[in-house]
Prior knowledge:
Blueprint: H1 17-30, H2 43-50, H3 54-66, E1 71-72, E2 79-80, E3 106-114, H4 118-124, E4 132-140, E5 148-154, H5 156-161, H6 163-166, E6 173-177, H7 183-189, E7 195-201, E8 208-216, E9 222-231, E10 236-238, E11 241-242, E12 252-253, E13 257-259, H8 262-267
Antiparallel strand pairs: 1-2, 3-4, 3-6, 4-5, 5-9, 7-8, 8-9, 10-13, 11-12
Amino acid sequence: MARTTPHDPPPADGEPLYRRIATELLGELRDGTIPPGERLPSERRLAGHLGVSRETVRQSLELLRRDGLVTTDRRGSHATLPGLPVETPASLAFPVGAGSAAPGSVARATVTWEAPPPHHADALGLAPGRPTLIHRYRYATADGQGRRTAVTSFSAVALAEVEELARYRDRADGTAAAQLRRAYDWMRRAGLTLHHRDTITRPASAPSVRVTRQVHDQYARPLEITDLVVDTQQDALVYEFTLPGRAAATAADRGPSPVRRASDAGSRR
């Protein structure tokens, strides 16, 4: 969007404008709009593209430089991405428990518009019986073992602020396949900082493990809750953490991912 004034618009909330612009730039780096290693446009062009002043762009790039996500060349007004971002879109997989399918395995994901389970509604602050977008994920190996199922409910905040999620309401009939693998990416591109908490429990009535993931934004507003159930007789959960570099604030969670054998789980760190 082209600017009509040399001054930045006042921030809509307490977050500095340059930080929000840095988040937008990082979203374009992650989604491939600006491929890894490609030179960024000049500060002037970025300012026009983002609708802010060059000084705000300069501050945003400096923030990304401190995080090791861009580097400046000798001319000083361009930047290049030195490689994949520290926290790649795969660092927090959606839904929890999803991963690379084994040969011959079956994975299916659908969405419906219905009232969520009562504990989901409570966690998301939804009134009892109020419908929302529900995502269901099912996975099984070729022999029918290693089953895992995940049910995700999204909050009103997530649907109001993440355009890509809201679009699924019109097709949420529970029959068509739904590819929401980039749901967390979409949330970040909407300016949301994700904070997640995974709780692992073991149901007494079955040889399985339940993982409940709750995701909030930087304002402690709930975004989604997922219940994952894993058949532990044939499957195992592996959590991998990558410590961030420089100014990154939290560890990036790369799991859990499907692992068939217990020996595999013991070899991963």
